[in-house]
From TrEMBL:
PROSITE patterns: ADH_ZINC (PS00059). Residues 24-127 form the Alcohol dehydrogenase-like N-terminal domain. It holds the Pfam family ADH_zinc_N. This is Enoyl reductase (ER) domain-containing protein. One of its GO terms (molecular function) is zinc ion binding. Residues 173-249 form the Alcohol dehydrogenase-like C-terminal domain. Signal peptide: none annotated. The lineage of its organism: unclassified sequences, metagenomes, ecological metagenomes. Keywords: Metal-binding, Oxidoreductase, Zinc.
């Protein structure tokens, strides 16, 4: 099979390798869709101390596909099933997991290798974070499960009420997904970002108003512009920073 291997920052090679074998509790998935996360880009450019700890390494972590083989002991999944897997699974046993902070797990099991024709799903991820894809969901949409889950988590933690004003700063993939989710939850969304296409797309996804950050060179003016668009001009009930840079704080 073909597989992308990362040999270090900026060093990615497409190689011909054997289809991996599976062990007890694992499943082999034929990859049908693989996406490029922002973290993948940063890892390719400068490396990543957690996601990829040694080289060479399989690469890519957002994907979906069809189960090709099922290891002994696997109960919930069968060959031919459409699935999507998270790229990690907590241990459930460490101090932080027992406290409910699974994002701080001291023994997090990571999964790389989406940029390949086949990928082995480890037993822990099979048990905790492998999901069947409904027939009506495409492989491409299913592969977006991780970023959509991140955005859903933000919406759930926001505790919004119907008619609240939500200002979203940044209209990359995360900002656009957030725009749609807040709109679906009854919020009035003010989308602040750059690029005519992204601003237009935010309207399609439910933004009530847009603020073109490229037309405003003073940060205070951007805040004033967004504030004028809020309910009674009082400002946003919730502000989401979706750029990922300290400057936007």
């Amino acid at each position: 099979m073909k597989c992308a291997m990362l040999y270090g920052p900026g060093k990615l090679k497409i190689e011909e390798v054997e289809i991996p074998s599976i062990k007890k509790g694992e499943v082999l998935v034929e990859v049908r869709a693989a996406l490029t996360c922002g973290t993948d880009i940063k890892t390719y450019i400068r490396g990543h101390p957690v996601l990829i700890r040694s080289y060479p390494s399989p690469f890519g972590h957002e994907f979906s596909g069809v189960i090709s083989q099922v290891g002994t002991g696997v109960k919930r999944f069968t060959k031919g099933m459409k699935v999507v897997a998270a790229n990690s699974a907590p241990c459930g046993q460490c101090y932080f997991c027992k406290k409910g902070y699974v994002n701080l797990c001291e023994d997090l099991r990571l999964l790389n290798g989406a940029y390949a024709q086949y990928i082995v799903i480890p037993e822990r991820i099979v048990n905790k974070n492998l999901l069947e894809i409904p027939d009506y969901v495409s492989f491409e949409d299913a592969a977006l499960s991780e970023p959509i889950a991140c955005c859903l988590n933000a919406v759930c933690q926001s505790d919004i009420s119907l008619g609240d004003t939500v200002a979203i700063i940044g209209l990359g993939p995360i900002g656009l997904i957030l725009t749609h989710l807040y709109h679906l939850n009854g919020a009035k969304v003010i989308a602040c970002g750059k690029g005519e296409k992204r601003l237009e797309l935010s309207k399609i996804l439910g933004a009530s108003f847009t603020v073109d950050a490229e037309e405003i060179h003073d940060e205070t003016e951007e805040i004033k512009a967004a504030k004028k668009l809020s309910n009674n001009g009082r400002g946003a009930d919730i502000v989401v920073e979706a750029v990922g840079k300290p400057d936007t704080w």
